Amino acid sequence: MLRRSYRSFFLVCLGAGCSDMDSAPAFTLSVQPTSANISAGQTVQLTATPKDASGNALSDRPITWASDVTSIATVTDGGLVYGMAAGTATITAASESQTGTATVTVTAPTPPPPPPSPETVTLVGAGDIASCSSDGDEATADLLDGIPGTVFTAGDNAYSDGSALNFTNCYQPSWGKFKDRTRPSPGNHDYHTSNGSGYYAYYGANAGPAGWGYYSYDLGAWHIVSLNSNVSMSAGSAQEQWLRADLAASTKLCTLAYWHHPRFSSGTTHGSFSAAQPIWQALYDAGADVVVSGHEHNYERFAPQDATGTADPTRGIREFVVGTGGASHYDDEGTPKPNSEVFNGTTWGVIKFTLGPTSYRWEFVPVAGQGFHDSGTGECH
């Protein structure tokens, strides 16, 4: 008994040299840094270190993170804090019975001065693009060869599963030629791989923060927002809160957004995606002008409307469904939705936006040998 007691005392007292140290309960939990200042839209990495009563770090202890004001700052499971809007939030780490905190102060970003005379720029793209069983993506890629500017995608980039193999064999030989100037959005087929891993690995930084699927950028006089309809778009969701903060920080007069599932569609294969209504509402509240989606493999244009589908020629958002990038057609228009102006389900092509300081022009460009066209102009709100 004496030998056993001595051995137990020996194991406890050796500190860093004791092999049983990691079984000790956490005595403290320190978070570093203890305070941080970031601008809205920026991130800061926090770390939490559990320690025993002797001050030795304990490894392999589960840590949970939380923010007390998620409208100001959110935090991931790994301690990455994202600034949402101006204010102060307390970030708390917890492990076993211990907690540690850090104070994160978020400031509004300093807007850059607007350019004296914004240039006209081009944004061109489509959704539902590359399948090794169709040559439509090659035909639409030929169109992009002759259209300079930024390329966008409205989801379902590589069929059928958005895998690394699909991107390498199907997407890369066609639209992959324009990867450096492409700003994509993910579709449901891209999410057939776990959490869209093939999509994020292929596009890298061009797809925005890894794993989010939503981001924004400025193009000439326009603010462009790429969103992710494969994750929650509900009111109060991380994406909806991020969008409202992003739009509030923008200094641009004109705004265009794109994502995969269309808020409104007269197609009968998938139809309208009501879950996108809170996102549309956020865009509408901020005075956005244009939304582009895919998912239905056809082309449809709507008159400006609000998030409920009510015509609003003054403040409404004009929607384009452009699932015409090369995948098989859906020639299945049902009863036209209110405010639907044009529908075509038999033509591959891309939509080309010419974005000016206070207005825009759209043109649906069909592939060689197909005759459907659509074009027009609009003014920014």
Tell me what you see in this structure.
The protein folds into 2 domains: 18-107, Immunoglobulin-like; 121-379, Purple Acid Phosphatase, chain A, domain 2, CATH 3.60.21. It has a 7-stranded mixed sheet with strand order 13-14-15-16-18-17-19, with no helix packed on it. A 6-stranded mixed sheet has the order 12-11-10-20-21-22. With 381 residues, the chain is of the alpha/beta class. It has helices at 2-13, 136-145, 164-171, 197-203, 238-249, 277-285, and strands at 28-32, 35-39, 43-45, 47-51, 64-67, 73-75, 80-83, 87-95, 98-107, 121-126, 150-153, 182-183, 215-219, 222-226, 254-258, 290-293, 299-302, 318-322, 340-344, 349-355, 359-366, 374-379. The N and C termini lie far apart (85 Å). The longest helix is centred in the N-terminal third of the chain and has 12 residues, at 2-13.
